[in-house]
Amino acid sequence: MNNTPMVNDEISLKELIHKVKEWYKYLLSKWKIVFLAGVIGGVCGFAYSIIKKPIYTATLTFALEDEKAGGGLGGALGLASSFGFDLGGGNGGVFSGANLAELFKSRSMVEQTLLTPVTVNNKVISLAEMYIQNNSWRDKWSKNPKLNEIQFLPYADRKNFTRAHDSILGTIYQDLFRNSLFVAQKDKKISIISIDMSSNDEMFSFYFCKALAKEVGQFYIDTKSKKARMNMNILERQVDSVRNELNGAITGVAIATDNTFNLNPALNVRRTPSARRQVDVQANTAILTELVKQSELAKVTLRREMPLIQIIDKPILPLPKNRLGKLKGIILGAGLAIVIVTLTLILRRFFRSL
Q1: Ranges of CATH 1.10.287 domains, the chain
Q2: Which long-range contacts (CB under 8 A, 24 or more apart) does 176-184 make?
Q3: H or E element in which residue 310 lies
Q4: What fold characterizes domain 229-305?
Q5: What whole-number distance in Å separates Cα of residue 260 and Cα of residue 258?
Q6: pTM of this prediction?
Q7: What integer pLDDT is reported at residue 116 of this predicted model?
């Protein structure tokens, strides 16, 4: 009873070895076909390595500044708030870290970047037009007059775009988002974000990477410092208004004094306008002094909000390129062809045996 399974196992192993030998002999008998497939695959891989354009990658890294209001400036902001002025000294964490990385990949930022002007062959065009030329879309649109007439001028007003404009920009965005643009925060503990832009056109990668960083940086600065800038503008207008009133009051005091020169001391009522003007001068002087303080504090706050993105490394020409080497193309092409032909022969013999 105990010897039976051992005998069956031994028989199964022999059959397995026999089957392997059969398949080996079968494939060995087809070595000419496999060899020919390898040669053809190697030639195809060599041709592909020549035809395939290299991929150029532009890399830009930047650090996100995340200052917090504290110390003397925090006390100054508290003093300003006690007078009813909100100088916008918040931390603005809505754009920090991963959120800022997503902002770089947003459709609005990418499409606005595509409208940035660049110089190609001594002609100023937008990055969108440069992308269209690189991909030969104009040749494909030659039979469609509506598409062929579409132009993307630098800094064009987005509101004037048609449905076709939006569709083309959307297609470009999807291609860049999926295959070319990579934005990531390499380490959550370090506020350094890296932008990688890859394409088969070196200058497009170079221009787009720098333009995107500039576009998002400007949007980021304008958004985060918007409240501080608004308050500073209001304070500056108030300072100018009070200063004009003060100058008018000073002039009024001089006029009233001239009118009462050598006046009879018994006629004190004639000195009333001069006294009133003196009160206006004192009041406006006090108000102007406080407003100037608040205005200068607002300028300090605005300057504090401005340097939000610090560029560390910019793309430098020539860009690193990733290209399929000729030897690598031959090896990959031959290997892939051999695997495909071998599997085809195995499946063919297997189905025939059934």
Answers
A1: 229-305
A2: 176/110, 176/208, 177/105, 177/110, 180/205, 181/104, 181/105, 181/110, 181/212, 183/101, 183/102, 183/104, 183/105, 184/101
A3: strand 309-313
A4: Helix Hairpins (1.10.287)
A5: 5
A6: 0.65
A7: 92
